[in-house]
């Protein structure tokens, strides 16, 4: 278990973790394709589909969507209960905080700014003027990229991997949880809960702070 009194790094997934929505599903709703895209997302999060291939398939549906439509999803940002408080708590304990997402940098950048994250990484949507092309920049941020990004940030901040925590909800987060010293499954799919060190099924992220504090006292 990590030592809260020492500097550390905590890395979060974004969709259905730091925020309550799956951005790509809500974007698809803007073009009346939500049910179709949400079914693909759910299968990918269960681990039934290749993530990178399914992401390209879902992004293709968004071709022609105008930039100002994206902003609708983040006015206000649909933060998970306890998200901002948990980030503040980690920072008060001297920890670095970050988000790495199989979603999109358009959203992670705003999220990082809003709640004070040190780093963010996600897929880049490609544009033709102010409309989506239906393509995403390569390489796709997939499960392995999430795990490697955690290691890159830990090295950047000179934080040992023994002082890292990863928090996610889907199969795409498994490698990241396994790379960290402590893997946290937050309101997660069964496949992720099976490999996590900590399972939190209460839909409030501050439950993680309470769990870590209680563990320190034992």
Automatic annotation (TrEMBL):
Record has Cytoplasm as a keyword: no
Cofactor: Mg(2+)
Catalytic activity: O-phospho-D-serine + H2O = D-serine + phosphate; O-phospho-L-serine + H2O = L-serine + phosphate
Any Pfam family hit: HAD
EC number: 3.1.3.3
Keywords carried by this UniProt record: Amino-acid biosynthesis, Hydrolase, Magnesium, Metal-binding, Serine biosynthesis
GO CC annotations on file: cytoplasm
Top-level enzyme category: hydrolase
Keyword Metal-binding (UniProt): yes
Pathway in which this enzyme or protein is active: Amino-acid biosynthesis; L-serine biosynthesis; L-serine from 3-phospho-D-glycerate: step 3/3
GO biological process annotation, one example: L-serine biosynthetic process
Domain of life assignment: Bacteria
SUPFAM superfamilies with a match to the protein in the record: HAD-like
Family annotation (InterPro entries): HAD-like_SerB (IPR050582), HAD-like_sf (IPR036412), HAD_sf (IPR023214), PSP (IPR004469)
Gene Ontology molecular function terms on file: L-phosphoserine phosphatase activity; magnesium ion binding
Residues of the active site: 13 (nucleophile), 15 (proton donor)
Membership in a protein family: Belongs to the HAD-like hydrolase superfamily. SerB family.
UniProt name for this protein: Phosphoserine phosphatase
Organism: Pseudidiomarina atlantica
